[in-house]
Amino acid sequence: xxxxxxxxxxxxxxxxxxxTGTAYDEGTGAVRRPLHMANSYKLPDxxxxxxxxxxxxxxxxxxxxxxxxxxxxxxxxxxxxDDAIVLASGVGALHALFWTLLKTGDRVLYPKVSYMAVYRMxxxxxxxxxxxxxxxxxxxxxxxxxxxxxPGTRLVHIETPDNPTNGVxxxxxxxKIAHENGAVLSVDNTFASPYNQxxxxxxxxxxxxxxxxxxxxxxxxxxxxxxxxxLSTMDRxxxxxxxxxxxxxxxxxxxxxxxxxxTFPLRMQRINESSQKIAEWLEQRENxxxxxxxxxxxxPGHELARRQMKEGYGGVISFGVKADDKAVEKFCxxxxxxxxxxxxxxDESLIFxxxxxxxxIHLYPEKFRDGFIRFSVGLEEPEDIxxxxxxxxxxxxx
Length: 398
Ligand SMILES: *Cc1c(COP(=O)(O)O)cnc(C)c1O
Known about the structure:
The protein is an alpha/beta fold. The chain has two domains: 13-261, Aspartate Aminotransferase, domain 2, CATH 3.40.640; 264-395, Alpha-Beta Complex (Aspartate Aminotransferase, domain 1), CATH 3.90.1150.10. It contains 13 helices and twelve strands. It has helices at 13-19, 66-78, 90-101, 116-130, 142-148, 171-180, 193-196, 231-243, 251-261, 264-284, 302-308, 325-333, 382-395; strands at 83-87, 107-111, 133-137, 155-159, 184-188, 206-210, 224-228, 288-292, 316-321, 339-340, 350-354, 372-376. Strand 5, helix 7 (193-196) and strand 6 form a beta-alpha-beta unit. Pyridoxal-5'-phosphate binds next to helix 3. Pyridoxal-5'-phosphate (PLP) is lined by residues 89-91, 115, 159, 163, 188, 190-191, 210, 212-213, 222, 224.
């Protein structure tokens, strides 16, 4: 596929989010492009040139559909990148990237703290099923990365800020270490989002976004994207993973995420501001044992985050309370404004406890092992969120 169209290159992110990928509908002149719920398309009269594993021709929805392609234009533009591939979920996008890049005998470095499915893929699946050498590394420690990498390592994958502890990893420094050793760097940018952080500009080769989160922003559709300027690898991902493994996005979900993403920069701006306020409030609240948010000057990742996150520090706050697992559940259930559910980056605030019996708790820094909660800040008035947190804490005696 060719480089994605971006006729608004150089414009501000709000203008791009509104205009990229949009056009008049050719048939009707409607100011919105339609939703094409078709799984197949009229074939050309001469079939001799048709490649059934290609994504160049609209032929079958798994090879690509117009709603997917228009969303890809916008996602590429949000990262000022040449190309983006939109798939059915964030994990679908991560898998498509790893599946295409890695083969038996390759070495990959993956983070000690990461999204659960990344841990599963590298801790249990790619190593045991396919003989990929998978090495877990504390990516917030550059010395540890230098020690773990070997010449010919194929891939370094990082996540920053990481899910669920909000640890910050130095993208530019790790890109340099990876490239000096012949590896490529992929960055899961879901927590930061392209409003705050664009890893390709810092030297990363691939970026993954869970569109399900801040970019869609309304908690009503699942999707994921791979973003890169490496057009030939992106075509391999389309061929090897999209068409032949098949985690294709439904046109309806692509249409919904396209619509949600129009207001993404505006929402993110407010979420950054509210999160900063709420993190500062939590920090001074009694019985809060720690607050991990890169915007707080006392956080270990703060100086680095100031350098690589441009507009703000994102919408997830990781914090601890002086309470056992049962009391934390009661606290979450007592919230009225905040929704007790997994996921993050919705319009509504979401809370999700990380219990002390979680199988990965030993991988997190010491202070995260008791009373740890992941909080995703929504668009409600920050004062309402704060009083809700306060009343629910009081309800369990904090
Ligand atoms: C949610 C999430 C994903 C996965 O996205 P899905 O759409 O749920 O598959 C990947 N990485 C991070 C950091 C996430 O928060």
